[in-house]
Here is the input.
Amino acid sequence: MSRVLMAGRRPRLVTAAGVLGLLSPLAGCSSASTAVEACMAKQAASATSGELAGTYVGEDHAKGATITLKASDTRTGGTVTVHNWPTGDWYKSELGDTFDGSGTWDVVGDTRPGEYVQVHLSITEPELFLRDHTVDSLSIATDSKRTFLYEDDDPDTCPIFRLRMVTSRRG
Here is the structure.
């Protein structure tokens, strides 16, 4: 009889331990950047076009995608070129799942405490994409060695659409 009780308790202990293991990382998430910092780098509160200029390659769900940001001398942004970029539902029937394109980019966002800057893309080739009809807003994470651009869709998990800088255009 004791074997049956012991056998019956093991799954409960394992289940309880598993649930606690899953909840423990969430308990430490006191800010939106915690999950981002755990898998990439710290969310950027500020960034210049010169710091962000370069080529980025996709990781995880962005694998195969690349984005190249070229800085402008006259504004906070410049020109952008994308390859294998996600099309979005509106243009899939016309362009397929991904496309190659170009346009412009800007650094946008507040510099208030707790606010983070983003890169806003305006894709105009192969045609003008309307806002939110492709990935057109990317958050920034950076540390002393790495810079990432990512889609910030769930602050409690590591972003699955992220790109890592591989070639910097910094002077």
Remarks:
- Strands lie at 42-43, 54-60, 66-71, 77-86, 98-108, 118-125, 137-142, 147-150, 161-168.
